[in-house]
Specification:
The structure holds 2 protein chains of 2 kinds.
Chain A: E1 4-5, E2 10-14, E3 19-25, E4 32-38, E5 45-51, E6 56-59, E7 62-67, E8 72-77, E9 86-94, E10 97-100, E11 104-109
Parallel strand pairs in A: 2-11
Antiparallel strand pairs in A: 1-3, 3-8, 4-5, 4-9, 6-7, 7-8, 9-10, 9-11
Chain B: E1 4-7, E2 10-13, E3 19-25, E4 31-38, E5 42-51, E6 54-57, E7 65-66, E8 76-78, E9 87-94, E10 103-104, E11 108-112
Parallel strand pairs in B: 2-11
Antiparallel strand pairs in B: 1-3, 3-8, 4-5, 4-9, 5-6, 7-8, 9-10, 9-11
The chains are: A mainly beta, B mainly beta.
């Protein structure tokens, strides 16, 4: 059972526009969520997190929104830049681990 | 620089030949974990450790062993590698502040022929 789902394997966006990456989860007991970014030949790097007591967290160009009733979170990147082209994973905490989604490959077109 | 270092970065080996992938962190983190990444499956946890001498299985532990004799090191051992263990492996560590997430190493691409 996939507890964290990213249903869009890929997304292409023009430079300067907004990128919206989506993630759905099934376990309402998750108390926080994280987004990771991964470039080829590198390990994932932590991008931004959100506690379940909040519905929004912002860090520069990156904003994560949490809709608990829909069990849905999204990552907004505004404005998108070519350097944002990477695979993005959402993750939720399991017991002593993170449960990762399958990732969305974002391509920002110059 | 705070980091997780894993070696080697690339490894091609033959079925059945024991190998070890090393992992070391310099952040004094309590928690360490090994993940594998496969196409369409995301990142799946192999083993984790909560502290020295405390380890437990993750989601896909079959065919792997780990040890945590020192806080900074968490090697992954494949006693008898098989082709289905061909994958991209990541070691990761984190402290007690959950919202900062795991810090990942750069990865080890393993091919078993």
């Amino acid at each position: 059972d996939q507890q964290v789902k990213q249903n869009s394997p890929s997304l292409s966006v023009q430079e300067g526009r907004i990128s919206i990456l989506n993630c759905d989860y099934t376990n309402s007991m998750f108390d926080y969520f994280l987004w990771y970014k991964k470039y080829p030949a590198e390990g994932p790097t932590f991008l931004i997190s959100i506690s379940s007591i909040k519905d929004k967290n912002e860090d520069g160009r990156f904003t994560v929104f949490l809709n608990k009733s829909a069990k849905h979170l999204s990552l907004h990147i505004v404005p998108s830049q070519p350097g944002d082209s990477a695979v993005y994973f959402c993750a939720a905490p399991g017991t002593y681990k993170y449960i990762f989604g399958t990732g969305t490959r974002l391509k920002v077109l110059a | 620089e705070a980091q997780v270092t894993q070696n080697p970065r690339y490894l091609i080996t033959v079925t059945g030949k024991k190998l070890t992938v090393t992992c070391s962190q310099n952040m004094n983190h309590e928690y360490m974990s090994w993940y594998r990444q496969d196409p369409g499956l995301g990142l799946r946890q192999i083993y984790y450790s909560m502290n020295v001498e405390v380890t437990d299985k993750g989601d896909v532990p079959e065919g792997y062993k780990v040890s945590r004799k020192e806080k900074r090191n968490f090697p992954l051992i494949l006693e008898s590698p098989s082709p289905n263990q061909t994958s991209l492996y990541f070691c990761a560590s984190r402290g007690t502040e959950k919202l900062y997430g795991y810090t990942f190493g750069s990865g080890t691409r393993l091919t078993v022929v």
